[in-house]
Amino acid sequence: MKAEYNNEDHPRKSAAAEKSTEGGKKSSIDTKKASTAKGEGKGNSDAKNAFLASKGGGTGAGGAGGNGADASTVDAYQTLIHDRFFSQWEQPTSIPTEHKHDFSTVLKITIQRDGTISDFGLAKPSGNPVMDQSVLEAARKVIKIAPVPEGMGGSSGYTININFELE
């Protein structure tokens, strides 16, 4: 099975990592480009510049801001999420082998700051009800995971999409 992560709450530089786990399972993590907070102090008049200079201030560009989690923390937490959900997933055996690669289901998961799974649902159904139900059943089994690391997600938690594919 293959998992891809797409997280909108904690975007960072594009990265693709592939990981082999037990039983030949593969997962790849795909995240979006980072957004950075910028602080710019622009002087727009001679009077303002003179005032700032007299107070020991300046008109130069400010430093980049942000207090997000580092990439290794994000990767570790996404791997933890993957492992918990995929360990509960029983791949459907009723789908013929020649059609296994035809279906993928994207599950959207919302995790509260304390690690409680507060919501989940199909972000993109596969079109096969057996496949989709197997993914939802796995999600029902996961009630809580480790708390969301500091700097990830928002005040209400962390949301991530996981792509389930049969192999």
In the CATH scheme, what's the topology name? Fusion Protein Consisting Of Minor Coat Protein, Glycine Rich Linker, Tola, And A His Tag, Chain: A, Domain 2
Taken in chain order, the helices and strands follow as: EEEEHEHEEHE
Q: Which ranges are low-confidence, i.e. pLDDT below 50, for 5 or more consecutive residues?
A: 8-45, 47-66
Biggest β-sheet description: 6 strands, mixed
- Mean model confidence by pLDDT: 72
Q: Span from first to last CA?
A: 5 Å
Number of helices: 3
**In one word, what is the shape?**
elongated
Number of domains: 1
Number of strands: 8
Structural class: alpha+beta
Report the radius of gyration as a whole number of Å.
22 Å
Question: Can you give a write-up of this model?
Answer:
The chain has one domain (2-34, 71-165): Fusion Protein Consisting Of Minor Coat Protein, Glycine Rich Linker, Tola, And A His Tag, Chain: A, Domain 2 (2-Layer Sandwich), CATH 3.30.1150. The chain is 24% helix and 29% strand. Helix 2 packs across helix 3. The model is unreliable at 8-45 and 47-66 (pLDDT under 50). The protein is elongated and about 45 Å long. It has a six-stranded mixed beta sheet, with helices on one face. A two-stranded antiparallel sheet has the order 4-5. The chain contains three helices and eight strands, in the order ββββαβαββαβ. It has helices at 46-54, 71-88, 129-141, and strands at residues 2-6, 16-20, 26-30, 37-40, 61-65, 104-111, 117-124, 158-165. By secondary structure, the protein is α+β, with helices and mostly antiparallel strands. A hairpin with a 5-residue loop joins strand 2 and strand 3.
